[in-house]
Fold these 2 entries.
Entry 1:
Amino acid sequence: MQRSVTPLLVSVRGLVKRYGGVTALDGLSLDVAPGVIHAVVGENGAGKSTLMKILAGVVQPDAGQILLEGRNVVMDSPAAARKRGVGIVYQELSLFPQRSVLANLFVNREPLRRGWVSTDAMRDMSRELLDRLGLDVDVAAPVSRLSIGEQQLVELARVLLERPRLLILDEPNSALNKRETERLFAVLRQLRAEGVTMLYVSHRLEEVFAISDRVTVTRNGKDVVTRDRAGLTIPEIIDAMIGAHQEDLFPPPLPARKCDAPEQLRVDGVCGGELDDIRFTARSGEVVGLAGLEGAGVSTLLGILFGTRKAQAGAAIFPDGRGLPRSATEAARRGVCLVPADRRRNGLMLDQTVLFNISQVVVGALKTGSPLFSPKEASARAARQIERLRIKTRSPGSLVNHLSGGNQQKVVIGKWLEIQPRVVLLDDPTRGVDVGAKREIYELIRQMSAEGRIVLFSSTELPELIGLCDRILILYRGRLAGEVAGRSVDNRTLLHLINTGERPTAAGSALQ
Amino acid sequence: MTKTDQAPRRALSSTRLGARSAPSARRRLRLPEEAGVLVALIVMIAVIGFAKPRFLNPINLFTVLGNTTFQGMLSLGMVYLLAIREIDLSVGWMFNFSAVVAALLMVAGANPWLAMIAGIAFGALLGLVNGLLSITLRLPSIIVTLGTFSMFEGLSLVSNNGRAINPPDPTTSYFTLISAKIFGVVPVVAIVFVLLTVALHFVLHRTRFGYRVQAVGSNPDAALLAGIPNALVRLQTLVLMGVIAGLSGSMYVGFRGAIDPQEGSDFVLTVIAAVIIGGTPLSGGYGTVFGAMIGMLIIQVIASGIIFFGIDATWSTFVTGAVIIIAVVLDQIVRYHRQRRANAQRFNEN
């Protein structure tokens, strides 16, 4: 209709991007008409962020082309993208916290007056924009003194000062409260009226519906649906996001081994960070899922259970009859283990060998056993886990950095298995792991559960939670929004709970 | 096609041999670093010896080794600190202050052997001060020890009134033994230095403490989340540095029979230089104790070699500096090529 006459502002054709063995984009195409807010939605790992990074010139695609107003362009650096009028607001803030608001707004293009950097000129140039964004702060104050929401607006203002033709917003409101979000949306609508085109990435579907004109759903690095928002419903989007998943990815539950004394982990009214009065019980032999958006409190909860974060209130009783561990060291010694979400930063010593890494807990954390470090025993440990977890490595002496993501994750799991943990906390253990290794990790989770360990499993991928967990606890903005039985819940209900904190009205009463 | 044929076979055999090949793999990765500086040291000695054969006289060579002892021992402790991503700038004054305390106790009539033990304990106390300040105040050790550098200096100068302390009667067993040379050639202090090097090498690679030092230095966040008590390990490492400084200082009193008020004030840069020349990276996670010993010998060989050539001794300081830079550059080049080789292997594997 109208789009056939207006030329496309941006057209992306068959983008492919691989990171090692992981395919982030698999022939994705996207057409963005000028003057619209175009939303891109998809599950974690569906390729949204990679697409944005390619458009912003941060990442180079392995194949495919980008057309700007019909002309083929190469965005080989962020500067090149900026020159062509592409501005991006990142999900993580990229401000200099120690420097003033003004200094941040004009990084690298400070206005000069008589050869000197002029704060007055900066003030003049930014005043109107800041007013429009409703950002009423001391522009000479360091950014670190602003609230996160205000910082996000500074970030947006910084990009807007470049007068971009295409504005990319990667979950811009993840840190904003309701009022700030509304103000942001008002600004975005105004920008649209001025002819700015926007690509809007978000998890929160209601907000996508509130702001966007057109929606593209991505899955597994491909664009699966692109339609005008007016012709779409939330359930349709959710179905497109999930697609048809292979059931056989998830191994069936193993028969639980007979354990004489089933153990329990009881969490009773824990508060701390964003968490508010969390209470639940997990028993040995079951896999309990934890679901929630970024910032909903899942990571905080795992941190509290592992002793790296303090609970402000509430208590817990662990299988050994004691309360929350006060440190990770205490947790490790009491058989509580955490597989962190960011394995390269928090789980591994990349410049050390597989052998060294598998000894992390046994040698590093425990105080039982000999004070000597025996390379022979460490070799035996490494060989044991390499065999058990089928870690693909040339030898136990290979550097962990040279392993693939899945094998690195197995090393992290292996180091904990060496101490026979009673409580296993898994924070998104399959992130950035290829499908084969995923399946192996699933099997391992089943196995640990069957051996009578208490498994708490957090994931950002719904099929995983549904396929693997006996029960799923959903956190929404720090509170326990619901609990569903793993195998009986459908994607739609779960996604709705995760995104809104409430059950969909139709399916509401049946499950509780 | 051949590549895909070979890959599984290689993977299979490596897992089968995995357990046995592990130590050899590690040696393959690590030995060259120490071998490199060792070769450099030997070449240096050979070159100087070729020009001035008198340099190769065993008495001279062992004197060089003996002269390195006191700073050399400090560099062994510094290896641990760099390996755990810490540093101690106060080593020179810990050395001096411990020596002053030991010497003052001897002056006060204490048995020199007991005074030595007290000196070591005092060094440990100074290390504990560094460690507790760093951990309780959550300050990097470089800041804390920059402060204690002057604090220890000040207290030491107060204790000795700015004058050298000369313990009475340097003919007792302590002084004669420590300054003795076995067969008239090998200084006792050099033997202590070598034994301490072997012991600390063992501690770094074969004890839980050494493992923890490397683990924390390699990735502090991951170490913490593996349950390794980071703060405790850092404290222990700083105390170890103090113990070594106390030992070095106390032995120095026995060796020289006195402690000058400024002795040790300029040690720290030489000590760190030796560790870096030896191949311990500043990035943490790894350290070589033998390397530090060899690095210290290289510095000392340069210093005495320059005297043999009749060049003004002040030039040795310049040359030492140049050697640091050359050593680090060579290390970078070696690292770069090793990395490329490793990447190539990795590529073949995938």
Entry 2:
Amino acid sequence: MHQPEAQPRASLYFDYRVHPAWLPSAHEVEEEVQVAIVGGGPIGLALALDLARHGVRCVLLEAERQVSEGSRAIVFTRRSMEILHQLGVAGRVAAKGLPWRYGNSYYRGRRVFRMAVPHDADQRFLPMTNLQQPYLERYLAEALGQSPHAELRWGNRVSAIAQDEDGVRLTVETPAGDYALRAQWVAAADGARSTLRQLLGLKMEGTAYEGRFVIADIRAELDLPTERLAFFDPPWNPGNTVLMHREPDGIWRVDYQLPPGETAEEALAPAALRSRIDAALALVGAAGQQWELDWCSVYSARAMTLPDYLHGRVAFVGDAAHLLPIFGVRGANTGFQDAHDLAWKLALELRGCAGPGLLPSYSQERVAAAREIIDEAGKSTRFMTPPSPGYRLLRDAVLSLALSEEFVRPLLHWRTSRAHDYAASALNCVGDDDALFEAGPGHGAPCTDLRLGGDAFLLDHLGPAFQLLYFGAGPTPEVLACMASFRQRGVPLRLLLVERSGVNGAVEADQILPDSEGRLRQHFGVTVDGAAYLLRPDQHVCARWLTLSADRLEAALNAALGHSNRSFTS
Amino acid sequence: MKALSIPDLERIYDLLAEAIDAVPEGEVPRFLTKLALLAANEIGDAERFAGLLDSARRDL
């Protein structure tokens, strides 16, 4: 019998609420659901909301009856905020969260590098937003509660899985016994220790680094801005690195590496924690500062991925699919992009609109992204936790040089999670004019935001559909007929007209974007009337043209729906 | 590539020996690593630097 904790978790700042467990006896036996999502962390919740946005009926199974313990993922990137914005929760995250853009590296009491992550007025969100994971989970769960398509079942733990050609059967444990749930598809969002990954016997590839870290959340009054602080080689922790981040509610994250040979138990012993956190506070000029511990944990840096995220009718997302070092805020921020890539593809598959290549492209695009991240993360990890005497010597030499020499400072550059370009995706159009554009987002890149005036932004106008962004008075009747035929087959496809002043469109569009100053044209690198972009439902570009015809649009949509038989090259 | 004159080579020989002796014991590897990075930056060519590494490795 599954007995999830019935008492609210303890926290200095977060008011945990225990939800009633969903019990099969209290509900009618249902036929098959379209998608069952296993795991109600931020990625499972985001995926459920995203699927619901596409009209997919889904059930999310969460083993616990309350949101996660401790702050966990605390830094969310601009791209994550853009995804959360589409899911309708970015407003709450931004209202509670702390936005920031500067990262500082210190060595021997001196700041050797200060990095400003680029930001301009065309962006709705700052590069980073800090918020404790329990808040984010609450906002996502509450949004899910408003959705007619999705259902969140607290206290439901999956213990077995069986799949056949038509669907998946999950055995679900509850405090009042087991039941079977049948789903057409299952998404495994059950985290780093994924039960589904173990039940299916899947192995990850990659490296588990030796470095182990304490993460501790403390409440302390510190008069410091919201910026990233990294202290290399402090006297009390020689050779190791200390990171600090500000969180809402007067909470600070302190993150430091353990000396080799020390166990997690020793590291989390109150006396060891106290002396090291006192020493970390002294680094920021707050020696003797009073503080209270909220939560602490030990983690090890790993850079691993499943080689394939699709196994029959089970799709892996987030930490269940990959384990990434947290220095570059790559965990949840990578997971949101997984969910956002999978949601529309699964929705079109369920609607019968997908070609044979569409779902496999999820795995291709996201495994390639994970491998790129692992490669980048490896560079950060080799600097943060040098794996050998040679790397340690070079790291120390660079820190020492960085005090006086400009040229080595970029080595301290903090590589962060970024929005991935699916430049090699099989969903990108082959015969379009991508190569003829000199500016604007290219094949596979996410459409970047642009302020249209006041609080109105370009991305606000993109819905859960393919969008044809047409620059000019309107596409030809043949193009419009082509769009209508795809819509008839169930493909969501919207027309957005970017209108220059004086050009009067007679065409009926889903959205008109006035562009009297030519800013949208400039943003997309468009120099001629009649140019167009095709954006996927996840806002990534899959085709762009200087001139558009019905044949060209049809070819691009077929490729984007996975009907192309081109092989994926990466 | 410019070869060092014999007087310059002799001067560098002495400078380097005396600098190594003047560095606190235990800091020599870090000192030489810093020096290698500074020299690499002056050379400005990763391929040439890789070739120098090969030369230095020979006959150790």
